[in-house]
Amino acid sequence: MRSSSLAGLVLMGGGARAAYQVGVLQAMAGLLKERNAARRTPFPIVVGTSAGAINASALACGAADFVAAVEELAAVWSQLRVEQVFRADSLGVIRSGARWLTLLSLGWLLTRWWRQRPRSLLDNRPLAALLHRRLDLRRIDWALRHHHLHALAVTASSYSSGQHVTFYQACRPIEPWSRSQRLAESTRLTHSHLLASAAIPFVFPAVPLQVQGQREYFGDGSMRQTAPISPAVHLGAQRILVIGAGRLQEPPGPRAVCGDYPSLAQIAGHALSNIFLDALAVDVERARRINHTLSLLSPEARERTSLRPLDLLVIAPSQRLDDLAAGHVAELPAPIRALLRALGVHSDGQSPGEGAALVSYLLFEPGYVHALMELGRQDTLARRAEVEHFLGLAGAQASEAAI
Length: 403
Prior knowledge:
Blueprint: E1 7-11, H1 19-34, E2 45-49, H2 51-61, H3 66-78, H4 90-110, H5 125-134, H6 138-145, E3 151-158, E4 164-170, E5 178-179, E6 182-186, H7 191-197, E7 207-211, E8 214-220, H8 230-234, E9 239-243, H9 264-296, H10 299-303, E10 311-315, H11 321-326, H12 334-343, H13 356-362, H14 366-381, H15 384-391
Parallel strand pairs: 1-2, 1-9, 2-3, 4-6, 9-10
Antiparallel strand pairs: 3-4, 3-8, 5-6, 7-8
């Protein structure tokens, strides 16, 4: 294993799309088992955003045994159903989604009778219960204390101040950083931080958190996230693996488009893709440009700059997850399908259909989750040599074990 520099893992957001990350991690765990590598995590610095923050926290809790932590995380995702993430029964949908849509259309008429206005399209209290049941965050303290983990960070976006905040917990004091519209705060991470980071705008309710002694309401960390890789660098990572939750580049050639006026679901899906995907692509391109510029400088000139090259590996889906989700819309509970139809989601299960992008973030059902995990495994093994080099396995002695 490479030990000369700290390795960081950056897990991006994307709701149900984060199942793809689990498949990537499964493939990596398999490679480590094949080479009889140390069970301790190869990523002492873990940074997560949105659903990626939940995956990151699970890995941090199990930092002493990376393979076991991945297996436990995969088991949870494999058994996941929509009802464990948000209320999908008729009453729950009426209380949240249907009421929210009614307020949008007749709010001017009903607002005087509704003292408590709906806060989101969906009620994610089941997710809060699941996190408290399955994720013991006290294990993070233990991992930090025994130096299995260097630092964990999750990010969220403040609706109150407009700031993008990285909350982090580390094994030693790290000076908080502050940049334009983004800052960092050292704190003991809680389930509320994870729920805040994963609160998809409009879809899930905002979560109150304390920042510098003040109460602010936070939503999904992917909003206004201009530099997703930056927290890992600030925490000391010199080698960084980034696992995305959507294609960073579209394949060449024309795509079929619909000439009709876009539905609310299409607009929402496009907005979410902008929130979750575009910042990562820009930040990766920026890091690669810096690496290239530094390679052109003399050793003396490189010493005079504060910039340092990053060993960066990015793994992202090789397929459009919108298209993948379209084939699994029928797996959603009937009340959720009805709600999504009201927003303009239509699919015949064979073609992408309208609103498939929105569905791809909410489809916490086994068929779609397993397809994402399998895609993550395949994409990782397709780049096996790069992954082994990053993990420091290229020169290790292979065993007879298979992935």
